[in-house]
Amino acid sequence: MIVIKTAAEVDAIRASGMILREVFTQLEDFIRPGVTTEEINYLAEETIRSRGAIPSFLNYGGGYGIPPFPAAACISVNDEIIHGIPSERRLESGDVVSVDLGACLDGWHSDACRTYAVGDCSEDSLNLIATAEKAFHVGLAKIKPGNRLGDMQAAVYAEIVAGGCDVVRNFSGHGIGRSLHEDPVIYNYGQAGRGVKFVPGMVFCLEPMIAAGSADYYFMDDGWTVRTRDGSWAAHYENTIAVTETGAELLTCGEDCA
User: Fold this and answer.
1) E strand spans, the chain
2) Would you call 106 exposed, middle or buried from its count of C-beta atoms within 10 A (0-12, 13-18, 19+)?
3) CB contact set of 50 (below 8 Å; sequence gap of 6+)
4) Cα separation of 24 and 102, whole Å?
5) How far is residue 229 CA from its own chain's centroid?
6) In the predicted model, what is the mean pLDDT of residues 227-244?
7) Cα separation of 65 and 61, whole Å?
8) Do 140 and 188 form a contact (C-beta atoms < 8 A)?
9) Can you tell me the mean pLDDT for 238-244?
10) Bridge-partner residues for 75, per DSSP?
11) Do 182 and 174 touch, CB atoms closer than 8 A?
12) Domain 7-250: CATH superfamily, name plus number
């Protein structure tokens, strides 16, 4: 069931989202060759907690022999698509790293991701990162009352393919609010004219996850990290979005990414 949020509830999610925006702003200068993924995680967690929030991902999930997620940030490098676990791995010039974050403030969650180029990256890597972000914004433009979920999904998919990339299937965006993951499930592919209609007060996360080669994937032994089978590199871009009377509002960034 899709939970429609009141204006006050959207305000609460926005307050949570602005904490993530602050972290991403810090990471623009912090991420560089030589930094470890655990150091990125530490900065993110310290900032989230210093603003009175709780990291949404820390100790999330688990079961069936898989431990809960052990960090505040999912940090995925190169051929890691999503859910990378922070470690003492040092970033190198030319790497591509995605940082996926969640914050819970006063019981309201927000969720967002950015992919960063580390040092001097190849044109192919820069295109990969740009394609994920472009696909997000093309989808964003389809969000307005009366349009359908499939209108957005089809636009996202078309932009990914136009960028020469492959869409990661089976992983998705999602509704968000009191719970980190709510209805609806939002894949990065679909059919225009299909799916639920957007209505004001819907809040959800749109998050294109793409690969430069094949998006076929496998799980590492840690039960969390997802990697491409062919070793191709991946990118991920996400924001929390509220549907308004006239379109959409990004709750995890401002004019810097609108």
Assistant:
1) 54-55, 73-77, 80-82, 96-105, 108-117, 166-167, 173-175, 182-186, 203-206, 209-211, 217-219, 226-228, 234-236, 239-243, 248-250
2) exposed
3) none
4) 12
5) 21
6) 99
7) 11
8) no
9) 99
10) 99
11) yes
12) Creatinase/methionine aminopeptidase superfamily (3.90.230.10)
Residue 42, C-beta contacts closer than 8 angstroms, at least 6 positions apart: none
Residues whose CB falls within 8 Å of the CB of residue 65, separated by 6 or more in sequence, listed in order: 223
Structure tokens at 251: 């709750």
Residue with tokens 């001097």: 120
Render pLDDT for 87-129 as a digit per residue (tens, 0 to 9). 999 999 999 999 999 999 999 999 999 999 999 999 999 999 9
CA pair distance 101, 83, nearest whole angstrom: 10
Q: How far apart are the first and last CA of the chain?
A: 29
Whole-prediction pTM: 0.97
Asked if 38 and 88 touch (Cβ cutoff 8 Å), the reply is yes
Are 100 and 60 in contact, with CB atoms under 8 Å apart? no
Residue ranges covered by each domain of the chain = 7-250
Tokens of 48: 């989230």
Any idea how long the chain is? 258
Exposure string over 188-212, b if 16+ CB within 10 A, otherwise e: bbbebeebeebebbbbbbbbbbbbb
